[in-house]
Design brief:
The protein is about 40% helix and about 20% strand. By secondary structure, the chain is α/β, with parallel strands linked by helices. It has a domain at about 5-100: Spore Coat Polysaccharide Biosynthesis Protein SpsA, Chain A (Alpha-Beta Complex), CATH 3.90.550. Strands 1, 2, 3, 4, 5, 6, 7, 8 and 9 form a 9-stranded mixed sheet that branches. Helix 5 (about 145-155) runs parallel beside helix 9 and helix 8 (about 230-250) packs antiparallel against helix 9. The relative contact order is 0.14.
């Protein structure tokens, strides 16, 4: 099959002021074994000329790259949505500007879409440190089968085990452009990306292809230490609020009733898991 006969895959990348990690992330996209790509890169009005220069260089040598330099800073959420609106491929994916992935990532994930019920496919997910060294492998992110089973399984799964990483998978473009994007959820809620995925899995299966992996760089300095009882109370409140908001992302009242009944189990499970993390 020639390249022109292969379905077009859009890769959307947003970047701001991170030239050190950007080069590796770009190489991880342009060196994919699957070649029929549309690569949309939106640079979010960065003050860093090194970032802009690097992007211009890559765009000049690879005609698959569409490079947009925003005139004003959009912010991460709006910029990520912007590249989605530009996608024209039959399939699409987001690529963070500090992640690495296997060269066969797109080629292998695309094959899984022979399953007509799949709305997304992802591989193994690893976290890595700032130097690119793998730290841990997250649990499997497959959610397939009856809709209510997918919903319950995702709701009960631990947030800290990386279940929101499904956003790094490969999606059907016509599906992902119609669904409520995570930036459209109320930003005061903890974990709007989790809400987005919870919505997604109610529409179809999320499948895992274990022969390829993505390596997610852990954010630096985002975790705030608990300094006083008030900090702890605030975190518990925000997490409880999130668990309740998840219930209302369910598509109908019977499903919401099921999640409401599971709320005590979700709270207990989360509490026990936190104790385990702090004592191991």
């Amino acid at each position: 099959m020639s390249t022109k006969d292969m379905p077009l895959v859009t890769v959307g990348m947003t970047t701001y002021n991170r030239p050190e990690s950007l080069k590796g992330a770009l190489d991880g996209v342009i060196n994919q074994t699957y070649k029929n790509l549309e690569i949309i890169i939106s640079e979010d009005c960065s003050p860093c000329e090194k970032t802009k220069s690097l992007l211009r260089e890559y765009a000049q040598r690879d005609n698959r790259i569409k490079y947009i330099s925003q005139k004003a800073n959009l912010g991460p959420s709006t910029n990520i949505y912007f590249v989605l609106t530009q996608a024209t491929g039959e399939y699409c994916m987001w690529a963070d500007d500090d992640d690495l992935r296997d060269d066969r990532w797109i080629e292998v994930l695309l094959r899984k879409f022979s399953n007509d019920a799949a709305i997304a496919v992802i591989g193994n997910v690893f976290s890595m440190d700032v130097d690119g060294k793998p730290i841990k492998q997250y649990t499997s992110l497959e959610y397939s089968g009856p809709r209510i089973l997918r919903l319950v399984s995702y709701y009960l799964a631990e947030e800290s085990e990386g279940k929101a990483n499904i956003v790094c998978g490969l999606f059907r473009t016509d599906f992902i452009q119609k669904i409520k994007y995570w930036g459209q959820y109320n930003k005061k809620y903890f974990g709007v990306d989790y809400l987005f995925v919870l919505n997604c899995i109610q529409h179809g299966n999320v499948l895992v292809e274990p022969t390829v992996s993505i390596y997610k760089r852990l954010p630096v300095g985002k975790s705030k230490p608990i300094k006083c009882p008030g900090d702890l109370i605030e975190r518990v409140y925000r997490r409880l609020q999130f668990f309740i908001v998840c219930i209302f992302v369910a598509r109908n009242w019977p499903d919401r009733a099921v999640l409401l009944l599971l709320l005590p189990a979700k709270i207990l499970k989360s509490f026990v898991y936190k104790i385990y993390l702090y004592t191991r």
